[in-house]
Specification:
Layout lengths: L4 E7 L3 E8 L4 E8 L5 H15 L7 E7 L2 H8 L5 E6 L5 H4 L24 E4 L2 E2 L5 E3 L3 H14 L4 E5 L8 H13 L4 E4 H4 L5 H32 L4 E5 L5 E3 H6 L7 H17 L3 E7 L4 E7 L2 E2 L1 E2 L2 E3 L11 E3 L3 E2 L1 E4 L5 E5 L5 E7 L18 H7 L17 H16 L3 H26 L8 E5 L3 H12 L3 E4 L6 H8 L3 E11 L5 H20 L9 E10 L6 E4 L10 H16 L8 E11 L17 E9 L3 E9 L8 E3 L2 E4 L4 E4 L3 E5 L5 E5 L6
Parallel strand pairs: 1-4, 4-11, 5-6, 5-9, 9-10, 13-23, 23-24, 30-32
Antiparallel strand pairs: 1-2, 2-3, 7-8, 11-12, 13-14, 14-15, 14-20, 16-19, 17-18, 21-22, 24-35, 25-28, 26-27, 26-28, 29-30, 31-34, 32-33, 34-35
Amino acid sequence: MTKTIRIGIDIGGTFTDFVLRDEVRDMTRTGKLLTTPENPSRAIIDGVKRLLDETNSRAEQILGIVHGTTLITNTVLERTGARVGLITTGGFADTLEMGHETRYDVDDLFQRPAPVIVPRNLRRGVGGRMFADGRECETLDEDAVAREVRQLVEDEGIEALAISFMHAYRNPAHEKQALEVVRAIYPDLLVTLSSDVAPEIREFERTNTACVNAYVQPRVHDYLDRLTGELAELGFAGNLSIMLSSGGLTTIEEAKAYPVRLIESGPAAGAMAAAYIARQIGEDHLLSFDMGGTTAKMCVIENAEPHVKYDFEAGRLERFKPGSGLPLKVTVIDMIEISGGGGSMAVVDDLGLMKVGPRSAGSVPGPVAYGRGGEVPTVTDADLLLGYLNPDYFLGGEMALSLETVRDAVKEKLASPLGIGTEQAAEGIQKIINENMTAATRMHLAEKGKDPRSYSMVAFGGAGPVHAYGLAKLLKVRRIVVPMGAGVISAFGFLVAAPTTDSARGYFARLDRIDWDEVNALYAEMQADACKLLVETGAATEDIRFQWKADMRYHGQGFEITVPLPQGPLSSDDTKAVREAFDRTYGELFGRTVPGIPVEVVNWRLSSSLDAQDISLAHDPVETPAERPSREVFFPDFGKIETPVYDRYALRPGTVIDGPAIFEERETSFNVGPDATVAVDEFSNLIVEIREPGSQ
C-alpha cells in the first residue's frame, strides 16, 4: 500500500494536538484531545485512530509520524528519573556541587542550593588524566573503573551511568576505554559519555549534561519502546521521528541515545511553525507567541529563522534566577517560557491580592468550565466569562463549557473575598496574565537589544489567539498574524521542520594561532557523523546543507558568542574573514567592538539540515454563512461591546472585516477590538492591523 500520509503530534500539558497531511489527496486534517498524563501514548493512539477514521485512511498509509514530548522536562522538574551513578576523574567527584562557586541570589541568606542530579554517594573518582591539549598525563586505572561500577550497580542499585573525565572534549580515549570496561561487565547498562553528548569545554556543564542524559534515559527508552509497539499494533510501519530542542528532527535511536537533546522538544515545534509562516508571508521580524494550557512561549524570529542558543538551564528553583537550575550544553531554540496558560489558576493570596499562576489545572482536573472536577478558576474560565469563548463551540462543540458553573466559582473563590463583581474578577485575571506575559516578553527582548514595536506577532496555541490582541496592545505591536489551525499549529510545526543535527567540538585557541588542519579535521568528522544520521531518514548526501559556526570571544572574556563562519575548508588565508565575522556579530549584539584585542575560539559548531516540506493549511471555504449570532465581549480600553462572530472556515481570501469581531475555529478563538482591521490573505491567515490610539 502506498504511503502518503504524515502526522505531527504535540503533547501539551492540557491537550494533545494532531495534524494529518496527505500530499496525494491534498488533504490536511487537525485534531485535539485531552492529554492523558498518566500514559501520554494513550492520547496519541486515540488521536491517530480518530484522524484515520475521519479521513477514511489506514495506518499502513502513514509514511511518517513526527512527535514532540515534554517527558524529559517533566522528568527533570518532578525528579522522577533514574538512579544514576557518575564515574569521573579522581579528585573531581564534587564538580556538580561546586558548580561555578557562585550564589545565584546574593541577597538571599536562606538561598536553597541549586539541585544536583547525582547524590555524593553515587559519584566515584578513578585514576587517569588528560592534559588540556588532549595528551595523556596519566593512564586510566581500568581496575578502579571496574571496581567502582560494580559497587554502583550491585551495592547502590543504579539504573544508568554517566562517565565524564577531565578534558574528554579534547581527547575522549579514556571515556571510550572506560565504556569498554563497563560493557564487559554489564553489557545492558545504559551508559552516557560526556564526550558523546556534549564534547565542549566547561567541566561543570559537560558533566551535568551527561548526568541529566543518563537520568532521563531509562524513562525515555520505556516510553519510546511502548509508543513504537502500540503504533506497530495499529499497523504503522513508517518512520517515527522526534523533534529536537533545536527545532530539527532526529531518529528514534538517536533520541534514545541522547534524550537530553529533546528537553525543549515540544516548544520548539511552535517556533519552527512560526518560522515557516514568516517565510510564507515574507515577514522578517516576527514574534512567535504560543500560549497553551500551562505555559506561554515567546520567541524572536528574524529572517525566517528562530534565534538559537547552545546552553540551557533546566529545573530552576527560581524561574528568573540563572544558576538555580541544572546547566546543560544542548542546542535549543532561544525562547522565554512564562508560567501562564489557559489552565493557570487564579487565587487570592495571604495579602488579599489576586495572583494568576504558576500552578496550572492541566487536563486533570482542568478548568472549572470543563466539568471534570476543577474548582479553582483559571484563565480559560475568565476568557469564557468575558465572551471570548463560545460555550457551545469549544472543540467544535465536542466539549460543552458550563458558563454558570464558572460564574459561581469565580464569585465564590475571587469576587466575594475581594469585594468586587464577578466580571471585574474575570477582567482582573485577564489583566494580570496579559501584564505578566508583557513584562516577561519585554525583558526577553531587552536582553537582545530588541524593540517589540518593530515586530509583528504570530499567535497560536489554544489560548494564544484569545490573548493576542490584548498582549499586542500592551507591547505596542501593531500587526498580528493568526494562521489557519492556530490551535494546533505546534503539531503543524513538526511537519514543516527539516531533519537537522547540530554538532560541536571543543578546540580552544587564539585566532592567530589556530591549526586550521585540525579545525578542518574536526569539521570533516562532524560532517561524516551528520551525513550518517541524516541518510537514515532517507536523505541523499548531496541534499544536506552545512553551516559552520564557532563560539568566540575576546581574550580575557569568560563567555562566548556564536559566530557564522565561511564555508570551509578554512586556512590561514581566512583568518581575516573570521575576525570580521566576529566583529560584525559582536557589534550587532553589544553596539561596539574592541579593536586591537586578540580573539579566541572556544568551540567549533556544525549545523546540518535538509529542506523542509512545503505545506499549507489554506483550504476552500465552506459553503455556510460566515456570520454567527453576535454576543457581548469585553475589550481592554473599550469595555463590553456587542460583537459580530464569524465562522473562520467560511471566510474567503480577500475578505476585510473591521473590529470588533470574534473569529471561531474548532481549536481556538480569536478576537479584536474596534481599533483593528482584519484581512484574510491567500494562505487563509488572518492579518490584523491595530490602529494607533487617536487615529481613524
